[in-house]
Structures are given as structure tokens and as C-alpha cells.
Design brief:
Shape: globular
Number of helices: 5
Strand content: 5-15%
Largest sheet: 2 strands, antiparallel
Distance between the termini: 32 Å
Oligomer: single chain
Structural class: mainly alpha
Radius of gyration: 14 Å
Amino acid sequence: MVNINEYGQKESIKMTLPEDIITTIEQTFASDADKNYVTEKMCSLFTASLNVGPAQLARCILCLANGKVEIVEEIFASGFYGDPRDLIVQAMEKSDHKINWGL
């Protein structure tokens, strides 16, 4: 996937994402359109004003979405369910506290 930067140069929009997030997107979303959409949404976290880390939030969103682009859309449309920290707690609960999401 390619993005045109402010200088008119092509660059990969995946370059800001940690490798584990890219791998999760590639493995859990079915279509190329869904993968591209989710990648763009995850990249947007890195320029957003958040009270949690963008990579941490991206991992939690992917955990909760479980390959369903509709859930990603819902999470972003809701403003991260009001507080990104709530998403982290939900991801921790979903993983039965097997993964430390940073809280």
C-alpha cells in the first residue's frame, strides 16, 4: 500500500506500524480491501491525540476486532468507546489476562 506524502513522494503507509501489527492485520483480515482499510486506520492512531500509546491501542483494537472490519469501524466511530483505556481493559478481559496490554 502506498501513500503520497506532503512532498508528493510515494511512501509505504505500513512503515509506521510495528511488524507484529502488520502481521496480525495480514493474518486476520480476509480481503485486500479490508487489510488496506484497517492498516490505514491503525496508522492514523500514530498521529492522533491519545491518552494511551498508539501501538498499544492498535493491538487492542485488532484483538477485539478478530478479523471483522465492522468492529474496527465501530470502535473508531464511537471514539474508542469513549476512552481508549476502556478498550485496553476489554482486550485484557478477552485474552483472559494472558496478555499484558499495558495497564
